[in-house]
C-alpha cells in the first residue's frame, strides 16, 4: 500500500512499516511525546526496539524527503467477533521537524482507506484532553467525541480528562 499526499511542494508518502524502520521509529517514539500528549511513565518502559509491543504489520509509516517521519498504529479494538469491524488507533506520532506538513493527515487518510478496505465500520482512539493539536487534527478528519472521562489521569500534578473519539467509515 502506498498513498501520496501533497502539502504545498512537500510530498508525504505513506506505506506499511517494515522491520528496517525500527530504529527511525524508536527515535520518533523517544522524542515525540510529552506530558500533554502521552504518559511520562511510558518513556521509561521503552525498550531497544520499537516493535516490541506490536510488529510492523500494525503500523503505517510516513516518509518525507526520504526519511521516516511518523507512524500510525492501527489495530482491531476487540479480540472477539462481536467487536469485529471496530479498529483503534493505538499510537500516532510525527517527528518534531516534520510537523504541520500534513504528515499526520496523510497517515489518518491512509488509515481510513485501510479501514474501508478491511470492511471496518469505525475507527476509535483515546486522546488526552490537554492535547489540543491532536484534538484539532482528529476533528478536522471527522472524528467526534464519544465520551469524556474526567480526572482520568494524574500527569505532572494535574488531573486530566481522557476523551474517546471515533469516526464512522
Ligand atoms: C498531533 C500530531 C500527530 C500532529 O501531526 P502533524 O503531522 O503535525 O499534523 P498535520 O500537519 O497533519 O496537521 C493537520 C491539522 O491538525 C491540526 N494541528 C496539527 N498540529 C497542530 C497544532 N500544534 N496546533 C493546532 N492545530 C494543530 C491543524 O488543524 C492542522 O492543519 P493546519 O496545519 O492546516 O492548520 C503531532 O503534533 C504529534 O506527533 N504530537 C505528539 C504525539 C501525539 O499527540 N499524538 C496523538 C496522540 S492521541
UniProtKB/TrEMBL annotation:
What residue intervals traverse the membrane? none
A single GO molecular function, which one?
Answer: acyltransferase activity, transferring groups other than amino-acyl groups
- Residue stretches making up the N-acetyltransferase domain: 12-169
The protein's matches in Gene3D superfamilies, at most eight in alphabetical order, are given as:
3.40.630.30
- Entries under InterPro entries matching the protein: Acyl_CoA_acyltransferase, Bact_Acetyltransf, GNAT_dom
Q: Does the keyword Lyase apply?
A: no
Top-level taxon of origin: Bacteria
Please identify the protein, giving its name as recorded.
GNAT family N-acetyltransferase
Amino acid at each position: 500500500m502506498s498513498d501520496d499526499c501533497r502539502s504545498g511542494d512537500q510530498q508525504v508518502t505513506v506505506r506499511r512499516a517494515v522491520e528496517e524502520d525500527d530504529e527511525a521509529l524508536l527515535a520518533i517514539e523517544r522524542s515525540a511525546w510529552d506530558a500533554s500528549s502521552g504518559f511520562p511513565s511510558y518513556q521509561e518502559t521503552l525498550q531497544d526496539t520499537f516493535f516490541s509491543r506490536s510488529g510492523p504489520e500494525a503500523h503505517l509509516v510516513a516518509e518525507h524527503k526520504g526519511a521516516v517521519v511518523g507512524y500510525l498504529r492501527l489495530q482491531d479494538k476487540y479480540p472477539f467477533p462481536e467487536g469485529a469491524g471496530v479498529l483503534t488507533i493505538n499510537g500516532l506520532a510525527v517527528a518534531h521537524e516534520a510537523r504541520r506538513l500534513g504528515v499526520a493527515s496523510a497517515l489518518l487518510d491512509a488509515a481510513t482507506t485501510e479501514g474501508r478496505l478491511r470492511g471496518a465500520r469505525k475507527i476509535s482512539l483515546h486522546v488526552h484532553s490537554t492535547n489540543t493539536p491532536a484534538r484539532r487534527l482528529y476533528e478536522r478528519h471527522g472524528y467526534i467525541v464519544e465520551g469524556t472521562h474526567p480526572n482520568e489521569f494524574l500527569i505532572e500534578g494535574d488531573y486530566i480528562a481522557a476523551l474517546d473519539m471515533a469516526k464512522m467509515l
